[in-house]
Amino acid sequence: xxxxxxxxxxxxxxxxxxxFRVWPFNLDADSATLDSWxxxxxxDNLQELGFSFYPFVWPGPLMPHSALRFSSTLRVAKFSGCQxxxxxxxxxxxxxxxxxxxxxxxxxxxxxxxxxxxCPALDKFVFGYIHEPPRRxxxxxxxxxxxxxxxxxEFGGCRFPKTMDHQVHFPNLQQLxxxxxxxxxxxxxxxxxxxxxxxxxxxxxxxxxxxxxxxxLKLKHVEIYFADRLQELIVENAPCLERLDHCGAYxxxxxxxxxxxxxxxxxxxxxDNFSILQLGSWNHCF
Length: 286
Prior knowledge:
Blueprint: H1 3-12, E1 19-22, H2 32-38, E2 48-52, E3 76-80, E4 99-103, H3 109-117, E5 124-128, E6 152-156, E7 175-179, H4 185-193, E8 200-206, E9 211-215, E10 221-237, E11 243-258, E12 265-267, E13 274-279, E14 282-285
Parallel strand pairs: 1-2, 2-3, 3-4, 4-5, 5-6, 6-7, 7-8, 8-10, 9-10, 10-11, 11-12, 11-13
Antiparallel strand pairs: 13-14
């Protein structure tokens, strides 16, 4: 849809607009057009806002300040391919926001911390980058300081801080997705240990660890797709685990151990070349 068409629709619309979403092909390389649309009076009570500049243009254009004028009414916000303004701290209180997505967004540590602290009702948070692995940016530490209300978190295309081992606690998180991330073994297991209510985990094409250990009292479904070769897959204590879906590159002589998972159903091949399969107290060597 051409810019002139969007402008005409906003100018002629007589009712109230609750949702406004703009795709990359609707926007110029700068944010002037978007700014003019967001200042339209018909958007005054907007509840869902989403816009995306081209994520492969780095850095992206500056997000217009007008995008934050809906802070008191927004329930869903999805921003992609832009730079977050550093001088917008006073606008970063979104009391009704439940769903926040930041994709390939450049945002300062202070702004991200203020933004998440200003979302007391946040239920879902998605944060990630679209880059090839050699350019994978580091996840800002404040991205892990979201409110305790959060039930769903998704991270993608980034490197997790190496110093986060004992800094994470997500008491109500139920679903966690780590997609194409780099994370150390210690950080991965510390993160999972800090999610006592977790029941759904997706770990897709991520790297930085050679052992994956499942030790969770409430986890029901695990979906794992490995990018690096894995030496050990251990299901240690998972009384509620029902499904383990997995595939990927596996190390020869891999050690698979399923110690305690009475409800477990495994989907996908284990491997053609494992050397030790342990089921409870029963071991078999190949």
